[in-house]
Design brief:
- The protein is built from 14 helices and 20 strands.
- It is α/β, with parallel strands linked by helices.
- The chain folds into three domains: about 120 residues, no CATH class; about 130 residues, NAD(P)-binding Rossmann-like Domain (Rossmann fold, 3-Layer(aba) Sandwich), CATH 3.40.50; about 160 residues, Dihydrodipicolinate Reductase, domain 2 (2-Layer Sandwich), CATH 3.30.360.
- A nine-stranded mixed sheet has the order 6-7-8-5-4-9-10-12-11, with helices on both faces. Strands 14-15-13-16-19-18-17 form a seven-stranded mixed sheet. Strands 2-1-3-20 form a four-stranded mixed sheet.
- The chain starts with 17 loop residues before the first helix and ends with a helix.
């Protein structure tokens, strides 16, 4: 799709001075905001090479355009995408995710002599006149647990609420921890030491034990057990319950939720045990069916490495390998030395590198049966609060050099069905904190890739909180039948 000389694109005559150029592009980004918002409220989500544009500031939209330098070997101009957004805004479209970056680039190099309005209309013609929602009515969501993942899931769910007729957070179930419990939980949602302040409003209704989050009423239900709640009493029906406690991980424990009136399905935010399916969103979704009442979302590490391992095995074959996870400390560790049931985890998380076990190697074989028994894994917990790194050493089925492997992974990240799970960077200056809030399951650090014959080593960063929660939201949507069509169809443009 990209031209051999992308800098020779035909563009509007921009000011010659750099400040004037910046102001011109800034003004275009400002004009994009109300159109992005309007389309979002009508369930049309705009993206720029996979990056969601909803709720971004003007400067963030401009930064997103600059990022395209890595995908199209050129900085995509706001002028080009502005025309696409304007054309989309003039149409009555049905629910979808529309990548304006890919549309703009395609128009520049393969427009077939159409003007921009005609091109955009032709690209999304299947959506025209289908304004509305995917679900007949909004799906009730219940959060069981309100820790790190629960609060991030709340942020993402509220952000993704669209016109209010998709997923709707109705209740949060927790154990009461004091008379100021409601206030403290509201404050934990408002502020976060790692991910910053919540970009919205949180109000407290003490008497009703409710939080009003961006206008959505969310009931706080206090309970010590999963099978003691009648959700019908809170006008909740056929809900999808997200269990983020980690207390119950097998069918016996998680089925307790299903025994409650008002709960239809359960999604576990951890690896499930027994015969419960563990799903990495975007990879093994094909095994999910409408009869599945309980699903596990695997672990953050499994979600980070499986997409990369999948594409490598499909293309080159994986003979064997080892995964070493450099993982940020978690709440299950001790701040200072104290008793812990797990080996070494009792030592201070803030002061030590802690070698510990991980089930990631075995979990890969559950999601990708073709790799069962081929991988080993270990983990080192380190004194950082978020963002982890998987070092993947593999023996492949064919000889490669570093540039060939990186070019392959770059194409996968930007022009394949796995572009929502895999990100790619070629920066030689990037460090872990740069990935806080990254929405991808895993990010290839191409500057660190090593390849020698059939032996290769890959470094895959991942925000073990945020990136995982995005995957979780994707799986939750699939469980309730909320699947957006993507335009253009990236499977057709690879």
């Amino acid at each position: 799709m990209p031209s051999d000389q992308p800098d020779k694109r035909t563009r509007v005559n921009l000011p010659l001075d750099t400040f004037g150029d910046f102001q011109y592009r800034q003004a275009l980004a400002e004009e994009m905001l109300p159109m992005i918002g309007r389309l979002y409220r009508e369930n049309v989500h705009l993206m720029l090479y996979g990056k969601i544009l909803v709720n971004l500031s003007v400067s963030e939209i401009m930064q997103a355009h600059r990022f395209v330098r890595e995908t199209e070997d050129n900085e995509l101009s706001e002028f080009e995408t502005y025309q696409v957004i304007t054309a989309l805004n003039s149409l009555e479209l049905g629910p979808a995710e529309v990548d304006i970056g890919i549309l703009a680039a395609t128009y520049l190099f393969d427009s077939k002599e159409l003007d921009i309005e005609q091109f955009v209309l032709e690209s999304v013609k299947d959506l025209v006149g289908k304004k509305g929602s995917i679900l007949e009515e909004a799906k009730d969501i219940v959060l069981y647990g309100f820790g790190r993942i629960g609060r991030l899931f709340t942020r993402l769910l509220i952000e993704d609420s669209g016109g209010g007729d998709n997923l709707r957070l109705r209740a949060i179930v927790v154990r009461k921890s004091g008379k100021e419990d409601l206030i403290k939980r509201a404050n934990l949602l408002r502020t976060d030491s790692v991910h910053g302040p919540f970009k919205g409003t949180v109000r407290v209704r003490r008497e009703e034990e409710k939080l009003i989050i961006n206008g959505s009423e969310v009931k706080i239900i206090y309970s010590d057990s999963p099978d003691s709640i009648n959700y019908h009493n809170h006008e909740i029906k056929d809900a999808l319950l997200i269990d983020s406690t980690g207390v119950w991980t097998d069918n016996e424990g998680l089925s307790k939720h299903l025994s409650c009136k008002g709960i239809d399905k359960v999604l576990l935010t951890a690896p499930a045990k027994g015969k419960i399916k563990n799903i990495v969103h975007g990879i093994n979704n094909n095994i999910v069916n409408s009869k599945d009442k309980i699903l596990g979302a695997a672990s953050c590490t499994t979600n980070a490495i499986v997409p990369v391992l999948k594409v490598l095995n499909d293309e080159f074959g994986i003979l064997s390998g080892h995964i070493e996870t450099i993982h940020s400390y978690t709440n299950d560790q001790n701040l200072l030395d104290n008793f812990h049931i797990k080996s070494r985890r009792g030592r201070s998380a803030a002061l030590n590198l802690v070698i510990t076990e991980t089930g990631a190697g075995k979990a890969v074989g559950q999601v990708l049966p073709e790799l069962k028994g081929k991988l080993t894994a270990n983990a080192i917990r380190v004194p950082t609060p978020d963002v982890s790194l998987a070092i993947i050493k593999l023996e492949l089925g064919q000889k490669l050099d570093t540039s060939v492997l990186n070019n392959f992974l770059r194409q996968i990240a930007f022009h394949s069905p796995y572009k929502d799970q895999i990100d790619f960077t070629n920066s030689t200056e990037i460090v872990s904190s740069d990935f806080v809030g990254n929405r991808y399951a895993g990010i290839i650090d191409s500057a660190a890739t090593i390849c020698d014959g059939k032996q290769c080593i890959l470094y895959v960063w991942y925000d073990n909180e945020y990136g995982y929660t995005v995957q979780l939201l994707g799986l939750a949507k699939e469980m309730v039948g909320l699947t957006y069509k993507r335009y253009p169809d990236y499977q057709k443009t690879t």
